[in-house]
Design brief:
Length: about 450
Amino acid sequence: MPKQEFESLGSTLLVHVELTQIQSQEDLKELQLLTESALGDVVESVSCKRDAPDPSTFIGSGKVEEVASLVNALDVQTVIFNNSLTPAQERNLEKAFGVRVMDRVALILTIFAQRARTYEGKLQVELAQLQYEQARLVRGWTHLERQKGGFGLRGGPGETQIELDRRALRERIAAIKKSLEVVASRREQNRSLRKKNAIPVVSFVGYTNAGKSTLFNLLTNAKVYAANQLFATLDPTLRTIELPVVGKTVLADTVGFIRHLPHDLVAAFKGTLEETAQADLLMHIVDASDERKESNIDAVNAVLEQVGASEVKTLIVYNKADLVKDCARNIIRDESGKPTRVYVSAKTGWGIDNLLSAVSELLSDNLCEFTVKIGAENGRLRSLLYAAKSVDSESYDDEGFAVLNIRITAVEASIIDSKTNGELSLCCSSLEKPWKKSNEFDFDSVN
């Protein structure tokens, strides 16, 4: 089982291998940032090109000798590869270098383990680590012939130590998954409550270090940890704000994504990432000053597709606009006039008004506009409509009835109609009740 307390990586040497397959290519600069985020001290980096990985050492015998010489000369404590290594490659390299060897997946898992703070976050990270270590158990044993046998046990030589450890891992993984199911059930209850209360959810997504948490703090006055490092925040945070027309809205800050995010991590965090799939709007935060911003967008979209959130309505927010010359100052719209992109600076506050306007506009897509005619006996209906901040204007006709022009979401209109036993339907001047088509939830349980 992985340790809960992590030793420092110490002085590290980075090995970057450029492969011919485009889908396997990584960025050396990003590996340096990942290592620094894991509190490693990068003393040297080595790069090489290969058509395909060497089956036993990934980099070949000649490069192994070169790296081993540097490890000895620079007193390196950890060698980190910017690729995924097989268990056999990892063992062979550790034997050749005489120090700890990590691949890119293990490095990311280490960072996640260091940053997890909540109960759920720690469980998710431990699950990902255990699943990763399952194939690497042999690394920890030099005497795999150790066996458990004796009277009262099954015949034969008994269980080897590696088999015992694998069984312990399976049992722990099963226990963690059961605990995560309980947490997921609670989250689903909270999600259902928000739906019944017609509160829209805007989920922040984006490549790590794009400035999501800084923007989140600016909009919500929260105190989420934000720093110029990869995966500065890990555990999701939810806050409410008031938006024009829309009213109360939940903003959800999620973990940053990264290119080739380990599958075990995606699987472990699937429950948390499902919040993005259930959101009414995704706010895709992009570092406008990053040269690789377009490929970063593709990397985020790939993860969103994995968790079933690729079809959710999305607004691309180019952050750090203060570092970009001649960026657009207005909301950028598509052919139908809907907002698609906006430039902001979470650091200076520039462009925030445009951002809030675009978010409000996208969330109000399902707003219904109609007129109601109510009398003195409909006092509760009138009170609920005003409480929902849905009354655009009010006037009185010749008969003394109040005529209210209403602008409200379909879900909230359905709730009010249910609470007033159909009074909204009776008072609505439109023959077709505009909110009926969007009634996706069970409102019978609303008191």
